[in-house]
Amino acid sequence: MDESLSTMTRKELNHYIQTKREAMRRAEMMGVENEYRVLERQVLIAECYLIDLSLIEIGKIYKIISQEDHYFKVEYIKGIFAWGFFVNGDEKESAIPVSMLQLPKQVR
């Protein structure tokens, strides 16, 4: 990739995400699990740059997108990562891409 995700326009980011999702479909059809997972993470990271970080409230608990009954309490934001704790989790402080948080109505 010639350009950093952080400097891409919304249009460029959406094109990048679309391209990666197409590659994910191909990897899934070919049964290449590791390639699929790498592409999935690339999409998650790119989606972070489409999110308005002001929608994320410190101290609030958010549902994790596409994981039933998983919740995350945000302690602070650093870059494109929300730092905090999984509700009912055994882990210490964790960081997840902000694109994993189910936020109020947002434009992606």
TrEMBL record:
InterPro entries, sorted: YfhH, YfhH-like
A Pfam entry, by short name: DUF1811
Top-level taxon of origin: Bacteria
Protein name: DUF1811 family protein
Taxonomic lineage: Bacteria, Bacillati, Bacillota, Bacilli, Bacillales
